[in-house]
Design goal:
heterodimer, A: 176 residues, Ctag/Cox11 (Pfam 04442), four-stranded antiparallel sheet, 1 helix, 9 strands, B: 531 residues, Cytochrome C Oxidase, Chain A, 2 strands, disordered N terminus, binds protoporphyrin IX containing FE, binds copper (II) ion
Chain lengths: 176, 531
């Protein structure tokens, strides 16, 4: 075969490679879609849900829940006596309160913490203690507390007691 | 050596060697590899000047915080076109110019395998370049999407985007044809006795580069074609609203893009592998390992692309795979650097301008390789991606790597090409100015990136001002230094002193040992015998 023929043959082969690679670029499209579907990794098709990355899973803190009433005709108790949480984790617990008087009553809950200095690390996002609560005669109500324990909580604290005391708001006999 | 330097082709010198045309038609119709090489080199210099002007404009805007000269849209157009023009217009063509001039002479061939195709490959380039530059004058201006042309931003650009896409098509066509030509020349046209493992390393690096080009330029053409049909023909390859995925664009682009960085770097490695032995007066250390290392780099470059995409939300296993594969590339790259250093070890070194640029290359490219390794680490890259640290990294590898190699090669072969000697003192001044100003521009950008300054932004936080001022001043200096380069080359061609037959005593490839200086218009029409 002459040199010229050899050159032409190599040219043809390389040109075929180039054309095939052009096709390969397009073949990547279905390949990519199949691969993402098979592995379930296509985040474009997945609905976005927020993930909390600030959780310190290496620690667990026990939150002990306590409840008191001060001269109030209410039965007031947490639904669970304690929960274990990781610092940084958003947690909701519920309290139940029953007005045993035959008339509406308004009360205000005041939280306290043990140990006391844990208070600054105990971040309440939502709490029934933020507002006054008015219960109709005999009403039963469940009230949430949503909180985060700050990951900066000193290592020495492994449990926090969260205690609420309900006081009657005088003169507001539920008429508000 | 002068005994062999001769004869083949010498006789032709006197007559009809310019194909019967003169003036501009000689250049338009030429099929001579040396003419075409020269045209590639000058084309590249013109593009380098245009791209450089844009760089100076970018640095003018960044001299102070706040907006002084340009609106943000125009600033983005400048960075985009600067990148595209430098990569596709300056760096890639300059090495094709070297390939045209040198490969036939180094393997003892009379010309490239497809001489007329060669003419065509070159003359595609001015059209592509005009399209790129013209896009500035379209309604909406040039695309402001970055040289990576990510979807979905590309969908929102004006007509300038289409001009750019066509320019990429033409540039790609030119590169593919040129590469096929180079592969065919090297595989089929070697002189008797010139086995593959006797070729100068420059030919080896180009052989491997040409294979890379044939493999990945079509993929880029595919990516921009999809962009084009998304824009105008209702396809939704990258449009999530129609079931496409913009991240897919990034995968396709970087499947081309990472091999592309080696397309830019490998021919430079080849030039350095010719220059360092010549000025060390020792053969290249570890020739075979250089060939294998170059091949290994080329093969690995196909499986690392997603290190540009660590933050797109890929699974951790994906990140780990691409991180390990990327760091693996440092091994063959290290082999090359150590081989160059070992070549210099105990050599009788002299430091003329080509060697100075080669040493500059060695230091600066290695630094760029190190910052590449830093960026290859996923947790670090998540912080640094899209900051000035990345800008510093790729300028160390592309400017101080590829461009310095090109300067080294130009000073090295200029006597062979023109038969004249450049002014050595001015050459050294050019080197030192370039070296100092280069580091002034880009070294400080590492600090900016580490402090969190994002790239591709015309305005910045006040706290970044000092480093930006230094960087901008460096850019103005580097620009001026290149005018000196132009002066050196032009005055060498016009009235340089005649060069010696063998200006560099350590140079030992065929173009030096078997051909007169300057190289005759036709060389090796009867092949030399290589022992
Ligand atoms: C040891 C070798 C190298 C390694 C490990 C490496 C690694 C990397 C990584 C991880 C990035 C992505 C950074 C980011 O976007 O966050 C990057 C960007 C880049 N590299 Fe390299 N690299 C190496 C050599 C090169 C060479 C030789 C060139 C060109 C001659 C090059 C040119 C580029 C360019 C142009 C970019 C920026 C692309 C962009 O986002 O616009 N690199 N490199
Ligand atoms: Cu890469």
């Amino acid at each position: 075969m002459s040199l010229e023929q050899q050159n032409r043959r190599l040219f043809t082969r390389l040109a075929i490679v180039a054309v095939a690679m052009f096709g390969f670029g397009f073949a990547l499209v279905p390949f990519y879609n199949q691969l993402c579907a098979a592995l379930g990794i296509n985040s474009v098709e997945r609905a976005e849900s927020a993930v909390n990355t600030q959780v310190d899973r290496s620690r667990t803190v026990v939150i002990e829940l306590d409840s008191n009433t001060h001269n109030l005709p209410w039965r007031f108790r947490p639904l669970v006596s304690h929960v274990s949480v990781h610092p940084g984790e958003l947690t909701t617990v519920e309290y139940e309160v029953v007005n045993v008087r035959a008339a509406p009553v308004t009360g205000q809950a005041v939280p306290s913490y043990g140990p006391q200095y844990a208070a600054e690390y105990f971040k309440k996002v939502e709490c029934f203690c933020f507002t006054q609560q008015t219960l109709a005669a005999g009403e039963v109500r469940r009230m949430p507390v949503t909180f985060v324990v700050d990951p900066k909580l000193p290592k020495s604290i492994s449990s926090i007691a969260l205690s609420y005391t309900f006081f009657e708001v005088a003169g507001r006999g539920g008429q508000s | 050596m002068s005994a062999v330097a001769d004869t083949h082709g010498h006789a032709h010198d006197a007559h009809g060697h310019h194909g019967g045309y003169s003036g501009i038609m000689r250049w338009i119709t030429t099929t001579n590899h040396k003419d075409i090489g020269t045209m590639y080199l000058w084309f590249s210099f013109v593009m380098f000047s245009i791209g450089g002007l844009m760089a100076v404009m970018i640095r003018m805007e960044l001299f102070s915080p706040g907006l002084q000269f340009f609106n943000p849209e125009f600033f983005n157009q400048l960075t985009t076109m600067h990148g595209l023009i430098m990569v596709f217009g300056a760096i890639m063509p300059v090495f094709v110019g070297f390939a045209n001039w040198l490969i036939p002479m180094q393997i003892g061939a009379p010309d490239m395998a497809f001489a007329r195709l060669n003419n065509w490959s070159f003359w595609l380039l001015p059209f592509a370049a005009s399209l790129l530059v013209l896009s500035f004058f379209m309604p909406g201006g040039a695309p402001g999407v970055g040289w990576t042309m990510y979807a979905p931003l590309t969908a929102q650009m004006g007509m300038g985007m289409d001009f750019t896409i066509f320019a990429i098509h033409i540039l790609g066509m030119s590169s593919i044809l040129g590469s096929i030509n180079i592969i065919t020349t090297i595989l089929n046209m070697r002189a008797p006795g010139m086995t593959l493992m006797k070729m100068p390393l420059f030919c080896w690096t180009w052989l491997i580069t040409a294979y890379l080009l044939v493999a990945v330029m079509p993929v880029l053409a595919g990516a921009v074609t999809m962009t084009l049909t998304d824009r105008h023909f209702g396809t939704t390859f990258f449009n999530a609203a129609g079931g496409g995925d913009p991240v897919l664009y990034q995968h396709i682009f970087w499947f081309f893009g990472h091999p592309e960085v080696y397309i830019i770097a490998l021919p430079g490695f080849g030039v350095i592998s010719q220059v360092i032995p010549a000025f060390s007066r020792k053969p290249l250390f570890g020739y075979a390992s250089m060939v294998y290392a170059t091949s290994a780099i080329a093969i690995l470059s196909f499986i690392v692309w997603a290190h540009h995409m660590y933050t797109v939300g890929m699974p951790v296993t994906g990140q780990l795979f691409f991180m390990y594969a990327t760091t693996l590339i440092a091994v063959p790259t290290g082999v090359k650097v150590f081989n160059w250093v070992t070549t210099m070890w105990k050599g009788s070194l002299t430091f003329e301008t080509p060697m100075l640029f080669a040493c500059g290359f060695l230091f600066m490219f290695t630094l760029g390789g190190f910052t590449g390794l830093v960026l290859a680490l996923v947790p670090v890259d998540i912080q640094l991606q899209d900051t000035y640290y990345v800008v510093a990294h790729f300028h160390y590898v592309m400017v101080a790597g590829a461009l310095f190699a090109a300067f080294a090669g130009i000073y090295f072969w200029l006597p062979k090409w023109t038969g004249k000697m450049y002014n050595e003192t001015l050459g050294k001044i050019h080197f030192w100015l370039t070296m100092i100003f280069f580091n002034m521009i880009f070294f400080v950008q590492h600090f900016l990136g580490l402090a969190g300054m994002p790239r591709r932004i015309p305005d910045y936080n006040l706290m970044f001002e000092t480093w930006n001022k230094i960087s901008s001043l460096g850019a103005f200096g580097m620009g001026l230094a290149q005018l000196l380069f132009l002066y050196i080359v032009v005055s060498c061609i016009r009235n340089g002193k005649p060069a010696a037959q063998l200006p560099w005593e350590g140079a030992d490839s065929l173009e030096w040992t078997h051909l007169p200086t300057p190289a005759p218009y036709h060389s090796f029409e009867t092949p030399p015998v290589v022992k």
